[in-house]
Every structure is written in C-alpha cells, then in structure tokens.
Amino acid sequence: MDQTKIELTCTDGVKLTGHWWRKPGEVPRATVIINPATGVHARYYHRYAAFLATHGYAVLTYDYRGIGLSRPESLKGSTFTWRQWGEQDFDAALRHALEEDRTSRVLVVGHSIGGFLAGYASAVSRISAMLSVGGQYGYWGDYALGHRLPLALKWHVAMPVLTGVIGHFPGKRLGWLEDLPKGVAFGWGLQQARAEQGLDREKAQVMRTNFAAATFPVLSVTMTDDPFATPKAINRAMGYYRNAPVTKVLLEPRDLGQARVGHFDLFHARHETGFWQSTLDFLREGQNPWPERVYA
User: Of 78, 80, 259, 273, which residue is the least packed, with the fewest Cβ within 10 Å?
Assistant: First the structure.
C-alpha cells in the first residue's frame, strides 16, 4: 500500500497538506476523501485510510487550514473559518480527487463537522455518495440533555473567551483537542441554531444553493452515547441536504461490541473488524449495514 504526500492549493491561494493512500498496481474501485472533525489531525484517520486502501480504494486525507500539517507557523490572529474549510479546503480536495479519479465514483467520509461541510463546496454535485459519522455543526441547544450545561460552558463560554484573549484557541495546551484558528473557535463557540448565522443574505443564499445541489445518497450514522451528534443535531444538519436521499442511523455501543463509543472513537483501530468493515457495505454498494437502526 502506497502513501504519497501531496500539496493542495485552494482558490484563495492557501496551501494544504494531504496524503494519497493506494494499493500499488490496482485500479481502485472508487476514490474516497476523508474530512476530519474539528481540531482533529488527519493522521487520526490514516489507519482507516490504509484499511480502505487495502480493500481497493484510492483514499485522500488532508488537514484543513490552521490544523495539523496545514497549520501556519502562528495561529495568532488567524481568521480561518468552518465555512472556508468547506468552500475552500474541501472544495480543493474534491477537485483534486476528481482530477485523479479513475473510477467515476468519488465518495466522502466525513466525521463531525466533516460530515456536514461538504455541502459548502461548489463542486458538491459531483460527489457520488457520503458517509457522515456524527455529522453536525455544534449548536449547543442540540447537545444531549445530561451533558448540555458542562459542554456549553466548555465550548461556548470558555472557548470563545480564551480565544478572544489569546487570539486563537489553545486547545492542545488544555488537552481539549488541537489548537484552533480564531475564526473556527468563534464559529463553533458562538454557533446558534442556523448554520447561516453571520452571513449576509446573498452569501446565505449561495450556501443554501450549494447544499441543494447535493443529490447523492447520504448515510448519516451516530451513537446513542454521543453527546454532540444527537438525533436532533443530525436532523438539523442533514436538513440542509434537502435534495439528497439521507438515511439516518442511530447505533448503540453494544451494536459494535463496545461499552462506550461517544463522538470521537469510531475511527480508532479497535473498530477495524466491526464498524470499519460495515462501512464497506455502503461504500461498495450503497447498502445500509444497519437497516434495523434507521430513524426518521
């Protein structure tokens, strides 16, 4: 299995670092782009990318601007936003994947915000299917009721306050994910019910139009013990994909042979013979591996 480091150039000139994962000498069955969660390095998904590559996929992993290998020397004063991660970064990854694709099937696996922001890309209509894992955009009112107050204080009070004082969010120093650019930290910390908040009427309409161009099947998966990606949060986020056939699945940890899973665990190697293997059903044939766990 080959791993090749690459550089992506966004339309606004920002350069990102990524990797291709391919099985040598084979024509892939499809091309997969992996979109990370907020504050999570692409390297966390490398084991899953390697797993997909061994099963015949060409896989592109990359870090958003301000994160991991795409982080500038200093984040102080950086204004990078979630919207740019979708409009610029994912769009650059998608266009590069389309240029490299030899299969006419480009798929997306998105985790957390990565399972939502695909709709920002102007080339979104060229995606063949998307697996969204815990895909939502961090509105505190959708958090699990028993976790809502502590999570709101942590991410929607402490994070924006610290960011305002320091100029970026020092997440790594605190042990709260990775450092975040100011615009991303404020975007999450001050997020309200509608993802269009802060956009003028014209930009909000562009956003909605882009999401409406998505007509590919989406399998949206979340866990009963995920305090962020509750069914309410998933329904809110997936509602933007109004022209896409979305299948929503709610799994219990015991469905995967685990006592706990939560929001960040599913891309850990312990799930290789369980959840990872099951995702192949959707990526190969568009089949939902958990039909008994579908909810409206």
Answer: 259
CB contact at 8 A, 196 and 206:
no
Backbone φ and ψ of 99, nearest 5°:
-70, -35
- Strand, coil or helix: 61: strand
Q: Among 160, 116, 136, 157, which residue's Cα sits nearest to residue 227?
A: 136
101 pLDDT higher than 90: yes
Q: Where are the domains of the chain?
A: 2-139+201-295
C-alpha gyration radius of the chain:
18
Q: Are 65 and 7 in contact (CB under 8 A)?
A: no
Q: Which CATH class is domain 2-139+201-295?
A: alpha beta
3-state secondary structure 210-249: HHHCCCCCEEEEEECCCCCCCHHHHHHHHCCCCCCCEEEE
Split at pLDDT 50, 70, 90, the class of 1 is confident
Place of tokens 């056939």: 245
| Length in residues, the chain | 296
